[in-house]
Amino acid sequence: MKTFLSTLALLSATSLGWAADVTPYSAVAAPEWTALFDAPYGVNDGWSGADGVYTIPMNGDERFGSGGATKTLILFSDSFVGGTHPDGSRIGGTVMVNNTSAMLSGATPTPSALQFNVRRDAAGKAISMVVPTQAGQWYWPGDALVWKGKVRMFAARMATGDGGDFNFKQVGVDLLTAPASDDAPFLGSYNRLKLPLFAPRNGQLGEIAFGIATMPLTVQAGAPNPDGFLYVYGVRSDDFNKKLLVARVKPDQMTKPGSYRFWNGTAWVSDINDSAPVANRMGAEISVTPLADGRFLVVHQLDTLSGTVVVRYGASPVGPFGKPIPVWLCPEDNLTPDTFVYGAKAHPHLSAPGELLISYHVNTFDFWENFSAGGKDIYRPRFIKLPL
């Protein structure tokens, strides 16, 4: 019966000109990519773990498997800087900064091809790579792209929250711009622009924040069916359920705040509060990738914090999107009693033929667990490969 149903699904997909859906739980570990972000003592400029992990091809080509022809900028959020001991504990004086980066040459997970980049003050102390102008706030990088010689990053502007395990809140979205010609973009000069891509909670409706994923459907990005728009994805954080939202803009108008339009379920409108959810049970970070067969593949962690990585297919950049298909159960969810996983997203340009490279984050509710023996193996990215 299972074989019959699988054949029927394949025939149905083929009749529509679509490839078959991925097989549930078919992803496999990618230890060579996970090992790339291991941090032995005394190397990596002291970088020893982070989350975020947005990968941006510096030539702007986002096609599957195109990464071998370019460098890749990797953007991290909260990052440990300070190195580790041979037993995996972090050395004294280790600090956490809100963002760092790395640059990878080519598309193979070779340690010698990866350069971590940490901004330091005049005294040599690690500091955040990018910071807002507002006192007491910080940036967590969102997705980014290279367009006409500039790196454009959608950054979440954050502030301290009201307590609890997650003592932070988002207060805005800024577009950060740096020259793509820099050896380490954003480590040098950059500028900031406030965008109308954030709206606070409105009664029973949660806050709205865009910038967690970008998808340039352009000729320059190598999109299979380009329409000339940059799609910028976000979520509405309703109680216990993050719901997917879609905005779009012409890439040349990214720096014009009034040019962004929001999908309301039937049309593109100018009011962010009219944004209509197109899928639910999202993560705080996702990816959306155009496929050669005309569909769009969303990768995310199911329900934000869970051990399940899922994908779902959409018929257009705004859906409709199908049900989530589980592809991987993260073993690190039970690494210790306090660990949790989140933030799954895909990296198509770094993927090998016939598969999709996916990363996710591991963290712990016990912050000081990161400093214990073996602690460096908690807070750093993991990678899997999904056959397509």
TrEMBL record:
It holds the Pfam family DUF4185. Keywords: Signal. Residues 224-352 form the DUF4185 domain. Residues 1-19 form the signal peptide. InterPro entries: DUF4185 (IPR025442). This is DUF4185 domain-containing protein.
